[in-house]
Amino acid sequence: MKAEPVNRRNKTQKICFAIFGVILFLYALSVFLPFAWVFLQSFRKSAAFYDNQLALSGGLDLGNYAYAFLQMTYKKTNFVGMFSNNVILAAEMTAAMIVFPTVTSYVISKYPFKICKVMLIVALAITVIPTIGSLPAMYKLTNTLNMRNNFLLIWMLNASGFGFNFFILYSGFQGISWTYAEAGKIDGASHLRIFLQIMLPQAKPFLISVAITTFITNWNDYLTAFLYMDKQPTLSLGLYELGQKLLYESGNITPLFAGIILSLIPTVVLFAVFQKAIMKNMSVGGIKG
Amino acid sequence: MEMIAKQLKKRKRLKSGYLFAVLMMALPLVQFAVFYVYVNFNSWVMAFQIPLDDEYVFSLQNFKSFFESLRYDGNSQFKYMLLNTLYLFVAGDLIALPLTVFFSYLFYKKIAGSQFYKVILYLPTVISIVMMTLVFRYFITVNGPMYLAFDKLFGVRLPDFFGDSRYAIHTIMFFNVWSGLGYSVILLSGVMARFPVEIFESLRIDGAGYTKEFFKVVVPLAWPTICTLFVLNLANAFTNFSAFMLFTPSNYEIMRTDVIGYYVYRSAGSFFYANQGAAVGFIVSAIALPIVLLARFLLSKTSEEVTF
């Protein structure tokens, strides 16, 4: 019979783990409670909310959601506008952050040219060198190139072939055997065809999981919107500015709660559906460094 | 004859492969040249320029004002920036990191409710930091739910955590540790889950307790990942400013809660301060680079001793 050493504890250990369990529970509660509270309060009428923020009296209604959806605006852009801006920006950034590293990691991992080895070293060096002061120069460049508030050009900012995704995809491509490509070559397939029809289908599983996490990162990204897309606000920028106004100039805050909950839906749904892929991706991507 | 033909064919294939590789890499390399090489180079140039009328002239003024501000006896913005960066390092590496290792160990030992806690820990990593800060700030604000609950339940009046300058910086640091724990715990417990089981079983036969197991086995085995997290946190201290910016009201005179990253960010869109921001970035990069490299070097030496 095989014993389970992990779960068998003596008395002292049991007491210790009970205490640790309480600490962990308190931490989890501190993360969960604020969001649960915002979620519940987002269904309450403003008057009832200000009367007692700790209760749920006054009945539940969807008025805040209707208000957030239709009336809440930031510099002429309403919630629907911010939501669609967010979708567009996150989608194009994700595409850029997948396509470029896919190309570079594929070539560098599969083609044994010297220049490829040099580029691998460059990619590694970039992760080590902290670039702290480059924002002003970047801002200047986006102005010169007319990229600001321009959905057609702004993706170029994130289209780096040598960032974080490069390393995940690089190790992914290294795990794919070149044998099929060799067979394709004998059949006369071009390099492009080998890439598109033989190698990419094999890379699909890890490409999809990287794409999901990249999309969530981009959906949540606020800096691009804050710096470069202020006239095309995304949810982060819009809700942040509204939060500033409502928190410090006092006002009707419950529609903002509804707006926050609405803006969380896409990531929460993505997370719920692709939980396994995301968890795996995080622990794989993290051990490199 | 056949061999020459074969070699020729191979050379041809290699050549077409080279062409393919170059064509594929062309766009990423152009992007890299413009948005990394040029931008960083231009950032250094900007550090040595100041705006004069409508043009920029060479000057060391940006550096002078930085160091003069540091030498100034009273409170100066740059002093706070550097101190807060140091605080950010302490909070990340000396407070959050040990907590991360400890929490990960609890998950590794399959403490009751592990699966449920893991999902909760994921929340801060998938929820936008803007939403996190909005919710957090309202939750602990004066006359907010936590304030009211403490007043009602314990008769305790909580202080104004953000408005009171004595607490503001600690509140932001707390938020950073609190919201950042999830990601690193998931990462580290994922690494621990891959530990070989045999080591622990032989240790148990020797009668070792949890404390011994933790310090003699778990920490050494997880050491390479702990080192990586340490360096990440260290680099993060120089660049992170999200919480500092998002918690600061837009019309607020910022000084005590300023950090380098936020200063550089604020300067970016300004005609007058952009060059000062670039210079501060230049100076801090010059400080950060050797520190980060040294930390990597030292830690890589210690982690090489671990073999399993």
In words, what does this structure look like?
The complex is a heterodimer of chains A (289) and B (308). With 289 residues, chain A is an all-alpha fold. Chain A has helices at residues 11-41, 46-51, 63-70, 79-110, 114-128, 135-144, 164-174, 179-186, 191-220, 223-228, 235-248, 254-273, 275-286, and strands at residues 73-74, 77-78. In chain A, strands 1-2 form a two-stranded antiparallel sheet. In chain A, α4 packs antiparallel against α9. In chain A, 37% of the residues are buried. By secondary structure, chain B is mainly alpha-helical.
For the CA atoms, what is the radius of gyration of chain A? Answer: 25 Å
Unreliable stretches of chain A (pLDDT < 50, length at least 5) are: 1-6, 285-289
The largest beta-sheet of chain A arranges its strands as 1-2
Number of helices of chain B: 12
* Strand arrangement across the biggest beta sheet of chain B: 1-2
Q: What percent of the residues of chain A sit in helical stretches (DSSP H or I)? A: over 70%
Q: Which range does the strand content of chain A fall in?
A: under 5%
Number of helices of chain A: 13
What distinguishing features does this structure have?
heterodimer, A: 289 residues, mainly alpha, two-stranded antiparallel sheet, globular, disordered C terminus, B: 308 residues
Helix/strand layout:
The complex is a heterodimer of chains A (289) and B (308).
Chain A: H1 11-41, H2 46-51, H3 63-70, E1 73-74, E2 77-78, H4 79-110, H5 114-128, H6 135-144, H7 164-174, H8 179-186, H9 191-220, H10 223-228, H11 235-248, H12 254-273, H13 275-286
Antiparallel strand pairs in A: 1-2
Helix pairs in contact in A: 3-12, 4-7, 4-9, 7-9, 8-9, 11-12
Chain B: H1 2-47, E1 49-52, E2 55-58, H2 61-71, H3 77-108, H4 114-126, H5 129-140, H6 145-154, H7 165-192, H8 197-205, H9 210-239, H10 242-246, H11 260-268, H12 274-304
Antiparallel strand pairs in B: 1-2
Helix pairs in contact in B: 1-12, 3-7, 3-9, 4-7, 7-9, 9-12, 11-12
